[in-house]
Structures are given as C-alpha cells and as structure tokens.
Amino acid sequence: MYEGPVQDLIDELGRLPGVGPKSAQRIAFHLLATEPADIERLQQALQKVKEGVVFCDVCGNVSAETTCRICRDPKRDLALVCVVEEPKDVQAIERTREFKGRYHVLGGALDPLSGVGPDQLRIRQLLNRIGTPTGGVDISEVIIATDPNTEGEATATYLVRMLRDFPGLSVTRLASGLPMGGDLEFADELTLGRALSGRRSM
C-alpha cells in the first residue's frame, strides 16, 4: 500500500504476535512522527534484548545474569518447583504472590505436528534438577503448570510419566475451573467439568 521503508516497517511490525495490519500501520506512522532521540532509545532497547538477555542456567527463565533473581533468592523454597512453558508464565504466577518456590521453564510444549518433541524442551534439565539436591535440599514437589490446551495437557501427561519413578516426589497439576466473576451459563463443558471434578470441601 505504501512505498519503500514505511511499507517495510509496517510489514515487519505486522509479523509481531497480536499486531494486525491496522495496528502495524498506526505504530509505523507513530514512529515516523517520533523524535530521533526516542527512536534511538527504542533501537538500543531492541539491540540489548538480543545481546544482553540470557537464560538462567538453573531454571531457563530470561535473565540479565547467568542465574536469575528468583533462583538467587535465598528465601525461596528449594524443595518446591513449578514447571511452566514460557518465561511469561513465570511472571503470571509471580503476580499472584502465592508461590514461594522456584521455577523450571520448558521453553514450549510438546507439539509433534510442529516438530517439537521432548528433546526440544528442557525436560532433561528438569530430571537432572530433581535427581540432584540443591543446597542439600531434595525437591519434594513438582507443580505442573502447563497451559490447559492440547499441547499443554500432552506435556503434563508426559512429565507425569517421566517423574513417577522418583521416590518421595509429589507431582501435582494446577487446578482448572471457573474464573472469578464468571457466570456458570457462559462456561464451556470442559471447564465446568473440571471445576466439578476438582471441587473441594468448605
């Protein structure tokens, strides 16, 4: 639609997740009208993301150092590990302020149709973590917090099979159910069924 660099920028922005053609166009024209100093700061931030961000050696979360701030925190419970698919999932759980253990980021979920098998995920590293005490403390519980979709459920099932041989290890799965403020009439059958099977006494 547009010529030269403007269209190139719109095309590149449109490849970002969640950015449609109209949003890409709005962002491109916003950047076109932005001060050069602001553009330079954006360029530097993008450059630092590629050059300065590393993944934690322990859990696989994004970090500025070889070990992330969560794994360095001495107040964290070493015996408790929550397994998630992506670094963004760590932040989602951290916002609840309910979890006091550590994390393990798989780097995705099993998806054979897309060529993602166990070897493409950080499953071997998880097994090594469980088999090796940290600071003299054995991991006693692994919480599987993969997404409640087909790939996430397949990953959870695979992990349960791999972890059942560890003696004394408790393997749990995040509960699925109804969102706060939701109405029963709008819940799908699968969500409502899981809420019923996961009911608790009061």
UniProtKB/TrEMBL annotation:
Transmembrane segments: none annotated. This is Recombination protein RecR. Gene3D superfamilies: 3.40.1360.10, 6.10.250.240, RecR Domain 1. It holds the Pfam family Toprim_4. Keywords: DNA damage, DNA recombination, DNA repair, Metal-binding, Zinc, Zinc-finger. A zinc finger (C4-type) spans 56-71. Belongs to the RecR family. Residues 79-179 form the Toprim domain. InterPro entries: DNA_Rcmb_RecR, Rcmb_RecR, Rcmb_RecR_Znf, TOPRIM_dom, TOPRIM_RecR. It comes from the Bacteria. May play a role in DNA repair. It seems to be involved in an RecBC-independent recombinational process of DNA repair. It may act with RecF and RecO. SMART domains: TOPRIM. The keyword DNA damage applies.
